[in-house]
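During the first year of the project, the team set up a workflow for recording each protein of interest as an amino acid sequence followed immediately by a discrete structure-token representation. This format lets reviewers and collaborators read both layers of information side by side without switching files. As required by the reporting guidelines, we include two representative entries from the current panel. The first entry is reproduced here exactly as it appears in our internal archive.
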Amino acid sequence: MRRPTPPCVYNPEGGRPPKRGGEFVFGQPATWEEPDQQTTTATTRYGTATAMAWDRLHPKLTRRAAWITHDMELPLIEGTVIRLSVEHLPGGGEPKPVWLWWSGTGANAADVDRLWQVFLRRFDLEHTFRLFKQTLGWTVPKIRDPESADRWTWLILAVYTQLRLARSLATDLRRPWEKPAPPERLTPARVRRGFRNLRWKMPSPAGAPKLGKPGPGHPPGSPNQYRAPRHDVGRILATGEAHQRPAHHKKGTKPRRIA
């Protein structure tokens, strides 16, 4: 494992003239040393992807910020710097290099390829969470206890799995401004539009529902027998004492209006 003496640092905004063991500036290839790892991968969307990795580089800490309470010398946070460049973009734009930083050291060629591929998959994760929250209503119910939240999360995952499995069965009910897509390329949101039509085509193991009257429900005006549990949020004041509600917010202390 290579360790420059003195250690190299990278500075995105500029730095000293290039020299051995000096600053590693992103926009100045003259300051780059020979990469420790270099890989070339053929992709279908971006052409040939070239990744270069430099091991055991650390950022140049010029401000204390998060280290405001650190009285000693600022530490050296070593990691791996990766430069990813591709031949072309799917939209036809100008492909610019992407710089990545990994907090680990000693990465081999397989680690470098896995790191930049995981970075590209972050778009899929972001859109998946967006579907869970905005379309499937993951954060809509106001759940009180963690067990209920876990059950609701597993239900959302089951719904998402059903949408994935029904991709080849659903009809593409696209909007006028959307482009046609083959069945194997339908998104879960577009499958959801035609999911209601699948119920008439699939057999149901359950029997026909029986007619019945709704229950009486909670009698109006009667108090609840089981209070909902309230959990302490754990707020601690600057003095170190636990947070308490003000006296005028407690039950029975609110002044009443006199007509």
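The second entry, processed by the same pipeline in the following quarter, appears below.
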Amino acid sequence: MNWSADMTVLDSILDDLAAESLQLDGWVAGLPLAGWQTVTTPEGWTVAHQIAHLHWTDEASVEAITDRAAFEELVRQAGENPTGFVDEAADELALEPPDQLLRAWRQGRGALAEALTSVPEGEKVPWFGPPMSPASMATARFMETWAHGHDVAEAVGIEVPRNDRVRHVCHLAVRTRGFAYLMRGLEAPDVPVRVELTAPGGERWEWGPEDAAERVSGDAWDFALLATRRRHRDDVDVQATGEHANHWLDIAQTFAGLPGNDPKRLADR
């Protein structure tokens, strides 16, 4: 793929990221002060924590592109405190007044898009996991916005509209299959898996060799919820054929860092 085509892909992902961000922005912008303190996760993150985390990660992404020394310091701090680093950053920013936090997140989103489009041809951006191309980093930012948007929506009683932008999350889940094993100290098997998912719009999305013996199939939206660890396997319409495909669905994660607590079944919440 040439540089012009790369930029077209990046621009398309950034457009979808902007749309996903605006959707979440609309959900939180009208919340009263008390609404920002609504608890969204079993670990106690509030709506404010969710927006704080997205803002912090956008800023970290910009630093990874524009200030490598500052980003390397972030990586060092994360290595010294792997289980608390992300939470502590969210705790600190969540203390800001909601209007100030929301304004900062909006500005950071713009800065991130500008920074990603400035990355030279062929260059990858360092991250807490493997280095990423600008398109991959934009996809990761979309995934985070989508996943944390779900946390907010469910907490404040909003039904998330299903749309085909979720393809970015599914694509990232497939691309990070090996990384999911790494995060659990396991060796990824050298076994191809075919993934066939039904999109919200009815199209069939496919990854992997057609003749692969091991397969994952089902609903794309549910696969994204599973891979972002927002749903238990018992609560999604996703099936696996084969030992390795089945194990992957147990450990799938699209995000960098430790997997965290396993999601609870909906009936147990």
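For the second entry, the following points were noted during internal review. The chain has ten helices and four strands. The first strand starts at residue 193 and ends at 198. Both points are flagged for discussion at the upcoming steering committee meeting.
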